[in-house]
UniProtKB/TrEMBL annotation:
InterPro entries named in the record: Ald_DH/histidinol_DH, Ald_DH_C, Ald_DH_CS_GLU, Ald_DH_N, Aldehyde_DH_dom, ALDH7A1-like
Protein name: aldehyde dehydrogenase (NAD(+))
Domain Aldehyde dehydrogenase: start-end pairs: 36-500
SUPFAM superfamilies noted in UniProt: ALDH-like
């Protein structure tokens, strides 16, 4: 089958009766929970993975801690060179790994590949960073003194990633953690263990041939117990968590309680504002990719569409044309994720389909309106693949203005629309939700742009202009504010969270003057 070809190319067993070990701490093992990896498009079982028990998780943390001592002693540019070699290993399997992401997560072929490319990109960035992450040399008020700020490694970084980006988000964390001198322990989402094992198998040999233990990038597949063990461990000073606001809140409390650090990347409730002066063709493309791409399962997917009254009718009629044509001439091309002509794959699991259905039902019950001709579950048989996939029709809806759904993130292709009169009003609506991840303004007015980017503008971590809410490059720090958790990953200043800063005052005189003119008379 096509699945066995992809699995074999990545050195994974193709016999689905065979249980795969889902723990790596220098050796492959696993005696904990059995995780079943299922293809969201066909329902077929791709593999059975045995994850970590609690004691195996503790052992893996200990092994990663030991490894961190070797990582931190290695010169940073040498660590950067290892990350460069990881880049080469990933690139040698970019298509195979991309296809496995499609098979296991359900996103389309080019997006599966795009995730591996995002990992490669952040490797490049991190390799450069390994020669440029600088501290500070500051003037002292005391004669013959100097002040340094030195970035030093933290130790073990725990990475808990979500199903929707099973490769890239780990890449952001692994690469930056390594070049800043840390080891990692990775707990991937329980539904994407094969992708994680394939990634780990590409990385371990690179570490080992460069004299680092494989446990410098430890892997613990598993469920809640495994996650709790990593999050609760005082040997893990930094926990980078991607997932829901509800779980993120718990992670934050537990790590805070033991005075650890977190990077939280939680829910998004991202809006696009189409201003009266926008290029509507451009806005249409931006909205479509972000609203229906990845079947609405990016943290950055567009959930809310805010239209200026003067262009609303025209924009909606152009948008709905895309949603309303039907398969196979369907312009949105819902279908098999591995078919290169497909634009929208299935939802990741049945629970997501149910959440899509209950969200829509609630909106309609409370007086909202579905604007697309079709909505609801689609039988996979329509696409000539086995009739077990989790497909739904992407929809545009107009909930009541005070509907509770405006405040929530639903991980499905549901786009909510409302009109506004002034940019100030649109910005207020953009900022009125608990979450603060991504936002976009479509405009050709430079004053509108200035307002949007400034103190009276969007309160999100990502504030785009004439670019949709999703699909960020790795250059800027990625993350959001408010209930999104305030964390930043990948580029920008994100690396500064992966270090402990040593503020060092050095006296190279033979006197002991005190700061602030304090006189201690000895
Ligand atoms: C996510 O959805 O958790 O900006 C990450 C984007 C991608 C990353 C999304 N580069 O859409």
């Amino acid at each position: 089958t096509r699945a066995s070809k992809v699995l074999a190319a990545l050195d994974l067993p193709t016999n689905t009766d065979q249980t795969i070990q889902g723990v790596f701490d220098g050796k492959w093992k696993g005696s904990g929970e059995i995780l079943i990896s299922k293809c969201p498009a066909t329902g077929e079982v791709l593999g059975k993975v045995q994850g970590a028990s609690v004691s195996e998780t503790q052992d893996a943390i200990a092994a990663s801690l030991e490894a961190s001592k070797l990582v931190r002693r290695m010169p940073a540019p040498k660590r950067g060179e290892i990350v460069r070699q990881i880049r080469e290993a990933l690139l040698s399997k970019v298509d195979e790994l991309g296809d496995l992401v499609s098979l296991e997560m359900g996103k389309i072929k080019s997006e599966g590949r795009g995730e591996v490319v995002e990992f490669v990109d952040v490797c490049d960035y991190a390799t450069g960073l390994s020669r440029s992450m600088k501290g500070n040399v500051l003037p002292s008020e005391r004669p013959e003194h100097v002040i340094y700020e030195i970035p030093n490694p933290l130790g073990v970084v725990g990475v808990l990633s979500a199903f929707n980006f099973p490769v890239a988000v780990y890449g952001w964390n692994l690469t930056i953690a390594l070049v800043t001198g840390n080891s990692t322990i990775w707990k991937p989402a329980p539904s994407t263990p094969l992708t994680a094992i394939a990634v780990a198998k590409l990385i371990q040999p690179v570490l080992e041939r460069n004299g680092l233990p494989g446990a410098a990038a430890a892997l613990v597949c598993g469920g809640v117990d495994v996650g709790k063990t990593v999050v609760g461990s005082t040997d893990v000073p930094l926990v980078s968590f991607t997932g829901s606001e509800a779980v993120g809140k718990e992670v934050g409390k537990v790590v805070n309680d033991r005075f650890g650090k977190t990077i939280l990347e939680l829910g998004g409730n991202n809006a696009v504002i189409v201003n009266e002066d926008a290029d509507l063709g451009l806005a249409l493309q931006g909205v479509l990719f972000a609203a229906v791409g990845t079947a609405g399962q990016r943290c950055t997917s567009t959930r809310r569409l805010l239209l200026h009254k003067s262009i609303s009718a025209e924009f909606l009629s152009r948008l709905l044309k895309f949603y309303d044509s039907s398969h196979p001439s369907n312009q949105l091309a819902v279908g098999d994720p591995l078919d290169p002509s497909t634009l929208i794959g299935p939802l990741h699991n049945v629970a997501a389909v149910e959440k899509y259905e209950s969200t829509l039902a609630g909106i309609v019950e409370r007086g909202g309106e579905i604007l697309t001709l079709r909505s609801g579950r689609i039988e996979g048989g329509e696409f000539g693949v086995e009739n077990k996939g989790n497909w739904v029709w992407p929809v545009v809806v107009r909930p009541k203005k005070d509907d509770e759904s405006w405040m929530e993130e639903t991980f499905a292709p549901i786009l909510k629309v409302q009109e506004f009169d002034t940019l100030e009003e649109a910005i207020a609506i953009n900022n009125s939700v608990p979450q603060g991840l991504s936002s976009s303004l479509f405009t050709s007015n430079i004053q509108a742009m200035g307002t949007w980017l400034g103190p009276d503008g969007s309160d999100c971590g990502i504030v785009n202009v004439n670019v949709g809410t999703s699909g960020a490059e790795i250059g800027a720090g990625f993350g959001g504010n408010k209930s999104t958790g305030w964390g930043r990953e990948s580029g920008g200043d994100a690396w500064k969270q992966y270090v402990r800063w040593s503020g060092a005052t050095v006296n190279y005189s033979s006197k002991m003057p005190l700061a602030q003119g304090v006189n201690f008379g000895i």
